[in-house]
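In this supplementary section we document a worked example of the pipeline. Step one takes a protein sequence of length 474 as its only input; no multiple sequence alignment statistics are reported here. Step two produces a three-dimensional model, which step three serialises into structure tokens for compact storage. The input and output of this example are shown verbatim.
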Amino acid sequence: MLFSSPDFFVFFAAYLGLHLAVPRQLRIYLIILGSTIFYAWWKPEYVWLPYLLMGIAYGGGRLVERVRDPAARWRCVLGAIAALCIPLLVYKYADFISRDVVGPLLGVHPPLLNVPLPLGVSFMTFTLTAYLLDVYNEKFPANRAPTTILGYVLFFPHLIAGPILRPYELVPQLERPIIARRAHFTISLAIFTLGLVKKLVFADQIADVVTHAYGQVAPPDALQAILAILGFAVQIYCDFSGYTDMAIGLAGMLGVRLPGNFRQPYAATSISDLWRRWHMTLTRFLGDYVYTPISLSMMRHAVRTRAGKWPTFLLTVALPLNITFLVSGIWHGAGWNFIMFGAITGLAMSVEFAWRRGGMPPVPNAAAWLLTMVTFLVSISFFRANSLGKAADVILAPFLGNWAAIAPFARHNLFPILLIAIFAVFHRFDDYRRIRVAVRRGRSELTWVAIALGWVLAIAVSQGSSGKFVYFDF
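The serialised model returned by step three reads:
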């Protein structure tokens, strides 16, 4: 059930009515029931998975909290996280490991599972991993009701594609639900409408030219490749940030506040700044639970061995960065192209930090922005392609491909080109603060007219249909 589909609008209207009618102390049960229906709508045979993952995390958290010996607590939390990751490994990575790692190394062709990837399995696994680690680090108590933790992982606005929530961000709101005021409801509906326009007007309409360029057997022409590279940058941002906008808007209408996940990333002037603005909850998760522990461990080693300036940099900054973004790449998907996506990002960020560490002169803003965007566009070309070879074809096509028939190409692709141009102009205004100020200070009738126009535009351009969200595959 897509947030942008008619089925979901019917579901949410019914859910919102029940949400307003049910006593607040019973809403956790409505969340569990409604979110179970929402998740089962895709494949009922996978409805057991969120319950299994929650059971593993809840049991593991209670066990970790009872054990006092530090070594035993560490073993308990590692065991619980390992058990939590088993479904993810089986459904997402088993075929890749068999086909692309073990097979070539041993010269065999092991049988493949070929099972569909359960929706949201990566996000649920990361969400509950954060819960276990926060319990282990005594940042969050495990003595919560099982229904609350089940609601924490099942809450349908963030269930499929995030944001990735820490327990302290959602659990207290589930335990002490509030009544959403009218102004909050209007702001939330406006944010949802923004996401709907991003998804249906921009992401879905640009998707065809991207799919065509990356899907054809022969290398694309130069203009096709440029349009596909730029188009995918707009598509994936509008698709994923649009999902986040809708998730935050839906939660807000239910009186729940979710954290933002994007902050104008294409205005960044460094690759590190871009990743502080892009999928911020994932970046925070990886920073807290991957980069920081590795960096601190390497720092202790560097101090013990009295390593010099640059060996210390390599151990405490470059190595943790590259491991972190390799984890990010592998988390996004099972394939060498995702590993390359992570490797490019880690290497680029290491170079950026080494430049600063070496005391080199700052790069002018315009050049820094251009370098950042080129690096990001190259990395997401690997993210989008089905293979390393196809990514290389698309990246090299502007230099090796045919530049003929520019005018016919522009006429044939006028609409996606226009959408990319509009996005480039308005991206810097993509900020929830502007929406909140406009709703609170503007005239209510103008606010509702703007929301209605957004819906009319989205429905008219999409003709009532919506493509699957990109991150549903991860």
